[in-house]
Write a structure and sequence with these properties.
The chain is an alpha/beta fold and 316 residues long. The protein contains 13 helices and 5 strands. α6 packs across α7. The N terminus is likely disordered. It comes from Morella rubra (Chinese bayberry).
Amino acid sequence: MSGSLSESTLNNSAPEIPIEFVSEDEMALIDFALAAACSSIPPIRSPFTFQRHARSIQSISVLAKRSLSGLTVLDIEDSGDLASTHKKSKAAETFFNRFRKKKGLAVTDITATEWCEKQMEFILLRAKRKTTTAMKVGSARHTKLEEEVVKKVKVRVKSREDTWALKLLNFMIGANQLLFEGLTRELPVIGFAEGVWMVGVIDEIRMPATEIERNPILVDTKTRVRDTLPAEPQRRNGRLQLMCYKHMWDNLVADNFPFNHFFDFFTLNPHSILSEEIREKAADSGFLAETLDDLVRLYRNTWSMLPPANDQLLLR
């Protein structure tokens, strides 16, 4: 819809601003044109700047960490030691240390920062994002897909070590399912990449049907309110998420998992005896473990049996 300025508007008040509605396809074209224009001029640097043109996974993760820092002078990437970046002054404390120090940087933190770094800042500082009806429907769809191949069992945890042990155990069970059945879903992944601990949950991993190709295919499922394909910015954001998962996967297959750094960063006791219930569940799945250190070693051994991820990623 477009409008013109009336005589009374010109005389009595500020001019009325014309409004125009555009479709998702038109927005995709506008976004593409903006990216092309930006690529021809030097970028303006700021703590929250995230350029829209193509970048490597390394540069993207660096920018995400800088966006979580909130400061230009204190950069997680430059610090070299994430465990020692904590400052006594809250003014100098990074967003990473305030909100992700004991959790790790989630893959969705990176994609949310790429989508809108200011929105991510507001979510961290003010409140969690409101759960919409569409988000609830999407969550229900993911749960249904998981239940098609995975049976969930409730397990009580009594310590932080138990919580992390359960995450590691769920990965190993899912990895075995992938190797023997060719498919698993909702696989939790914990890894060290680009100088930071990262966590994520891969929607689906499937083994190729051919005997020649044995590199697992990573799949991410997106739900939509309307029965239409998303615009290019949304598809790009989904591709970024899959590329982050592949980067983590290949990094772990290459045996890049620093033991001591893991326990120090998450403040975990490697010799802590796991709860009896977790030990029993682990034994039922074929994993004999008494301590968290035992499960971390089994986690690393499981990765040694897995091949790198397929270069072809599937956004469904």
